[in-house]
Design a protein that fits this description.
The complex is a heterodimer of chains A (about 180) and B (about 160).
Chain A lengths: L1 H10 L7 H15 L6 E6 L18 E6 L5 E3 L2 E3 L4 H10 L15 E6 L5 H27 L8 H10 L4 E3 L9
Parallel strand pairs in A: 2-5, 5-6
Antiparallel strand pairs in A: 2-3, 3-4
Helix pairs in contact in A: 3-4, 4-5
Chain B lengths: L1 H8 L10 H15 L15 E2 L3 E2 L6 E7 L6 H4 L4 E4 L2 E3 L4 H10 L10 E6 L5 H13 L4 E5 L1 E2 L3
The chains are: A alpha/beta (about 180), B alpha/beta (about 160).
Chain lengths: ~180, ~160
């Protein structure tokens, strides 16, 4: 009796019918736990640190677009309060100066955007402002690329990109933050 | 015409499910490969701000993460309610940044060390004070490529 059952077992194959269920179980586990993290963000290149105080460079006032953000997240742009939404168009006009106005940048190469915030400024506001500045430059570079090569900046070759950057260099200077506001 | 009649006589065979496990396994392997089990459990709350000018970070191994935010409820007793910096899986101060960066640099192939990016995952409600301190520390440590982590903004 016992012998026979052993023989039976030997001849039996492992039932693979439940394999699919097990695999399904694992699949569902991984489906649930998966977070296809796409880390995106505003890419920035910080300037190197030096212990000496920075050289005082003199620029013509018309070439500097100063943005000050205080601890209440208000913007002071070239001495006047401004909303974040209007920033991009204003910066674009400042850099390109299509009407050759006396108070805007002499040329796109000379234009400098200066950003200064307070230690009490909210990070969200800072990123918003930084994003607008970057957006202005990106749009101008794209417009140039379209005019010269007929495609967007990101699809250009390395040499073509250099050519565009030579015309519209992103000059963003960040000053050390002030410490008036409460952190 | 006769063709159709012939077919009607046959009993339609059941679809073979023998290959089902294989298909499922294939899906399973796909998800296993794609899954990134987050190595650091967050001790601070981070809700990244929104932005439009985003760059995607390509190589995970070339990125190190710095988290800044208010400690979560469980950690507020010992870490306080002020925004804190988290490196790896523990709270840190800006003095720990050089060591943290050096440790990461060790694990990266020498030729690719110039491509290392620091991803700053900062909560949107945090004030710039601590962020500025971290930025200064990064600059002093020679880490200039920084990515302010943000979510895409609609519209």
């Amino acid at each position: 009796m016992a012998k026979k059952s052993v023989k039976d077992r030997m001849s039996n194959e492992i039932n693979a019918g439940s394999m699919a269920d097990i695999a399904f179980l694992l699949l569902i586990f991984f489906l649930v736990t998966t977070t296809i993290v796409e880390d995106k963000g505003v890419l920035v290149r910080l300037p190197p640190w030096s212990d000496e105080p920075p050289e005082v460079l003199k620029f013509k006032t018309r070439n500097v677009y100063s943005i000050l953000v205080n601890a209440n997240n208000d913007l002071l742009v070239r001495g006047e309060p401004k909303k974040v939404e209007d920033l991009k168009e204003s910066i674009k006009e400042f850099i390109m100066n299509p009407q050759r106005r006396e108070d805007l940048a002499e040329s796109s190469v000379d234009a400098i955007v200066s950003l200064k915030n307070d230690r009490g400024t909210k990070y969200e506001t800072y990123i918003e402002v930084y994003n607008e500045v970057k957006a202005a430059y990106n749009e101008l570079q794209n417009e140039q690329s379209q005019a010269r090569f007929g495609k967007n900046f990101e699809f250009l070759t390395r040499e073509q990109k250099k050519e565009i950057v030579a015309v519209i260099p992103m000059k963003l200077s960040e000053a050390e933050p002030t410490a008036f506001g409460e952190e | 015409m006769s063709k159709f009649q012939k077919k009607r006589g046959k009993s339609n065979p059941a679809i073979s499910t023998a290959s089902l496990p294989d298909i499922i396994f294939m899906l399973l392997f796909f998800f296993m490969v794609v899954t990134v089990l987050r190595d650091a459990s967050l001790k601070v709350t981070v809700r990244t701000p929104q932005a439009t000018e985003l760059t995607k970070l390509e190589k995970k191994s070339l990125v190190n993460y710095l988290y800044i935010g208010v400690p979560t409820k469980e950690h507020q007793a010992d870490a306080g309610t002020k925004p804190r910096l988290q490196l790896g899986d523990k709270f840190a101060t800006t003095d720990d940044i050089p060591l943290f960066l050096a440790n990461h640099r060790e694990n990266v192939d020498e030729r690719q060390r110039g491509l290392i990016t620091s991803s700053l995952r900062v909560d949107r409600e945090v004030t710039m004070g601590i962020v500025s301190d971290v930025k200064t520390a990064l600059r002093k440590a020679g880490q200039f490529k920084v990515n302010y982590s943000a979510k895409p903004r609609q519209g």
